[in-house]
Amino acid sequence: MRDHVRLGTATAIAFTGLLVAGCAASHPSSSTSSPPGGAPVGASAPNAGAPDSAPSSATSAPRAGAPAGRPARCHTGQLSGRLRMLDAAAGNRYAALTLTNSSSAPCRTFGFVGLQLAGAEGATLPTSVIRESRPGARSITLRPGKSAWTRIHWTVASGAGEPAAGQCEPQPSRLLVIPPDERTQLAAKWPSGSVCDRGKIFVTALSLGTG
Question: What's the CATH number of domain 76-208, 3.30.360.10, 2.60.40.10, 3.40.50.1820, 2.40.50.140?
């Protein structure tokens, strides 16, 4: 009789264990899993722009815009671009690229622009952008109508394997500009001539003003 009781008790315990395991299997853990060598599923890539940006997490609520009292980031649609030639040097050309807040609200920007030379019919031309270390990047607030600028610098002397100066590369008609942290572009009319050394352009971080 005692053996039957012990057997019945063991069977009940085993059955209860299966029920518990079944409940655990039907209610998976809410922790975020990670693919091999990757970021957590659902996590977004970190923003490479302003110093206060940070990656979002799949388990935390999204941030609702900029901190209180601080303008939101400048988006491409809020800005207009213009290129103005500066003083030249032997074999070198310089221009001020100005981004102006053409919206009715202040916005904030930080860092370097992305650049792409384009021809008259929209075809992209060889472009290689090199960031200069000075001046250092800083956060800039643009009120409506105010501007930030970057100095760009290129050579008109042919590089190795290029045709004669002045014909080293196809002449651009526009410069496509991607503001910091943005993925869309605006266009500025290209001011003068070809960009030799396979489209190499040196660029500084944005500074307040028009240069």
Answer: 2.60.40.10
Q: What is the spatial distance between Cα 20 and Cα 44, in angstroms, rounded to a whole number?
A: 35
Separation CA 128–CA 81 (nearest Å): 20
d(CA 40, CA 112): 29
- Specify the residue for token string 């518990």: 20
Asked if residue 79 has pLDDT above 80, the reply is yes
CA distance 90 to 155: 9
Pairwise CA distance, residues 23 & 151, whole Å? 64
Tokens of 85: 């030639």
Asked if residues 208 and 135 have their Cβ atoms less than 8 Å apart, the reply is no
Nearest Cα to 178, choosing from 129, 117, 113? 113
Give 32's pLDDT tier (boundaries 50, 70, 90). Answer: very low
Count, residues in the chain: 211
